[in-house]
Design brief:
The chain is α/β, with parallel strands linked by helices and 194 residues long. It is built from seven helices and eight strands; from the N terminus they run αβαβαββαβαβαβαβ. It folds into two domains: 138 residues, Rossmann fold, CATH 3.40.50.720; 30 residues, no CATH class. NADP nicotinamide-adenine-dinucleotide phosphate binds next to helix 1 and helix 2.
Length: 194
């Protein structure tokens, strides 16, 4: 699901093309670690944003540039991107738009947000604003699709994408895995072996 979310977000919603500049906010997470590699596989240049402890991981996945969001606000660096895949939702919409080229595409894909409506308010604002600005502000909800899993499998088998796994747990330690995920701010993916 993480791989399919990244693939559909970049290829279908973001329409990433070779040579473009792409920013992945949340590059060290389950979706982000796929997104960094898939951006490269699509022939684009990728900048990954994550916390300092994960910079090396994101670099090792092929990111051309990394930004430590515990040290600097990526929206204030002055860089512009053709496509921004936002997997965190930690910047106001206006700041996200500052990251885009005049006709850039913002792909909103984070699940966070307020306690009542989650990310819906942000999504609604983006959808209402988009027709009136040059930039395209899009909401992305991934759909499980057989052919996309096949495309991912081919990329993995061809070596273009390697699922990033922080830790593997045997089935009987699933409770510990869930605890680790919740308490340790896990990176990439945790694996349960059956
Ligand atoms: N649109 C869809 O269909 C779809 C599908 C799947 C997931 N999602 C959403 O996409 C988002 C990413 O999913 P994921 O599975 O990749 O999540 P994840 O594995 O938990 O990764 C979270 C990412 O966000 C970063 N982050 C920044 N500030 C954070 C904070 N305060 N707390 C936690 N993480 C923070 C993390 O970086 P550091 O650890 O380096 O700080 C990490 O790169 C989630 O909001 C999820 O709900 C959407």
């Amino acid at each position: 699901m993480a791989g399919v979310t990244a693939l559909q977000g970049l290829r279908d919603v973001g329409q990433v093309r070779p040579g473009q500049k792409v920013l992945v906010n949340g590059a060290s997470g389950g979706v982000g670690t796929f997104a960094v590699q898939l951006t490269r596989a699509l022939g684009a240049e990728v900048t990954g944003v994550c916390s300092r402890r994960n910079l090396e991981l994101v670099r090792s996945l092929g990111a051309d540039h990394v930004v430590d969001d515990t040290r600097e606000d990526v929206t204030r660096r002055g860089a512009r991107y053709d496509v921004v895949l936002d997997l965190v939702g930690n910047h106001p919409l206006a700041d996200c738009r500052r990251l885009l080229t005049p006709d850039g595409i913002l792909v909103l894909s984070s699940g966070g947000g307020g306690p009542v409506v989650g990310p819906l308010g942000r999504y609604l604002r983006a959808l209402l604003l988009s027709p009136f600005v040059g930039q395209r502000l899009r909401v992305h909800a991934a759909k499980p699709r057989h052919e996309d899993l096949d495309a991912l499998r081919e990329l993995v088998e061809g070596g273009g994408v390697t699922p990033a796994i922080e830790r593997t747990f045997p089935l009987q330690d699933t409770a510990e895995a869930v605890r680790f995920f919740a308490e340790q701010h896990a990176r990439a993916k945790l694996m349960i072996t059956v």
